[in-house]
Amino acid sequence: MLSAARVWHATMSAFLETEGCKIVDFEKSTWRVVINGHRILLRAHIDDFVIACANRPFLDTFRKRLLEAFEGTYEGSLEHYLGCEIARHPVAGTITLS
């Protein structure tokens, strides 16, 4: 019998594969895809996703397709993840994790 977590991962993976995503090496919860030269990275922790892309319109379009496929919400820019605080410094062009 399959666990709910395993079924969710299989369902999510099947959708991401239709988007052209590939699992990043040995990390089964991280995917990558390049669309028109723009790299998108996606990390899943249970049912929470972190999506990164240097091109905001591509990121927004990808996120929209993801939210159309699965019930969810967009919570805005990431400020905390797995116990880490994320601080962006746009002028310096840096991000600090603590």
Question: How would you characterize the overall build of this protein?
Answer:
This protein is an alpha+beta fold. It has one domain. It has two helices and seven strands; from the N terminus they run H-E-E-E-E-H-E-E-E. A four-stranded antiparallel β-sheet has the order 1-2-3-4, with helices on one face. A hairpin with a 2-residue loop joins strand 3 and strand 4. The chain is globular and about 50 Å long. The mean pLDDT is 88.
Order the strands across the largest sheet as they lie in space: 1-2-3-4
List segments where confidence is low: pLDDT < 50 over at least 5 consecutive residues: none
Give the N-terminus to C-terminus distance in angstroms: 40 Å
Task: Report the radius of gyration as a whole number of Å.
Answer: 14 Å
> What is the H/E order?
HEEEEHEEE
Strand content: 35-45%
User: Biggest sheet, in brief?
Assistant: 4 strands, antiparallel
In total, the number of domains comes to 1
Global structural class: alpha+beta
Could you tell me the mean pLDDT? 88
Count of distinct strands: 7
Query: Which range best describes the helical content: under 10%, 10-25%, 25-40%, 40-55%, 55-70% or over 70%?
Result: 25-40%
Number of helices: 2
